[in-house]
Design a protein that fits this description.
The protein is α+β, with helices and mostly antiparallel strands. It is 18% helix and 25% strand. It has 2 helices and 8 strands, in the order ααββββββββ. A 4-stranded antiparallel beta sheet has the order 1-2-3-4, with no helix packed on it. It has a 4-stranded antiparallel beta sheet with strand order 5-6-7-8, with no helix packed on it. Strand 5 and strand 6 form a beta hairpin. It is globular, with a radius of gyration of 29 Å. The N and C termini lie far apart (71 Å).
Length: 181
C-alpha cells in the first residue's frame, strides 16, 4: 500500500509564513531572564536570593545574641506565630552550658532566659512555638530533657525523659500547630 504525504492547505502555509516577522519582533522585545547558557549570572542569582529572603523592612544589623566568648554552636531559632517580634534562639555554649535567649523586639536585643539545667553541662538545643505562643526547647544533659515556657510567663518548666537512653544526640522537639487540635 502506498502512503501519501499529508496535504497542507496552501492558505495555512502562507498564514504561518506571515507570522514569522511578528514572532521575531516579539522574541527580541522580551527581556531575557537567562543568558544563552540557560544559567543566571551570579549577580542575578545574588539579587534574586536577597530579594526572596529579605524581610519587608529589610535586613537589620548583625547582633551578637550571647555576648559570650568561645564557641556557641548548633543553634536553633523559633519565631512566635502569635507575635513575629517574639523570637527564641538557643545555643550549645561550650564554655558553660546550653542557653536559650529571648527577644521581644524582633532580634534587636536578647536576654538569657535561664534554661533550667540544674548545674549540668547541657547541649543540643532545639526550639519551637505552638499556635498559642508557648515556647518549647529540647536539650540533652547526657540524658533527654524538654522544657516549656507558657506565653506571657518568664519561667521555664523542665522535665527529664527517662526513655531517651544515655547521651542522645540532637533530639528535636516538634509541636502540633494545628488550631483544631
Amino acid at each position: 500500500m502506498k502512503r501519501s504525504a499529508p496535504r497542507v492547505c496552501p492558505g495555512f502555509a502562507i498564514f504561518i509564513a506571515g507570522l514569522l516577522p511578528f514572532a521575531a519582533t516579539w522574541a527580541s522585545a522580551q527581556a531575557p531572564a537567562y543568558s544563552t547558557i540557560p544559567a543566571r549570572s551570579p549577580q542575578a542569582m545574588a539579587a534574586a536570593e536577597e530579594q526572596a529572603f529579605a524581610p519587608a523592612g529589610g535586613f537589620g544589623p548583625n547582633v551578637n545574641v550571647t555576648n559570650e566568648t568561645g564557641a556557641q554552636s548548633e543553634t536553633s531559632v523559633a519565631v512566635d506565630p502569635t507575635n513575629p517580634m517574639h523570637v527564641i534562639q538557643s545555643v550549645n555554649d561550650l564554655t558553660s552550658t546550653a542557653a536559650v535567649y529571648e527577644s521581644t523586639d524582633g532580634g534587636a536585643t536578647w536576654t538569657n532566659t535561664g534554661l533550667p539545667t540544674n548545674g549540668a553541662f547541657c547541649y543540643d538545643t532545639w526550639d519551637s512555638f505552638d499556635t498559642a505562643g508557648n515556647a518549647f526547647v529540647s536539650f540533652q544533659c547526657f540524658d533527654q530533657r524538654i522544657a516549656y515556657k507558657l506565653a506571657g510567663t518568664s519561667t521555664w518548666v523542665a522535665t527529664t525523659l527517662s526513655i531517651a537512653g544515655v547521651s542522645p544526640d540532637r533530639d528535636m522537639v516538634a509541636v502540633d500547630n494545628n488550631t483544631g487540635s
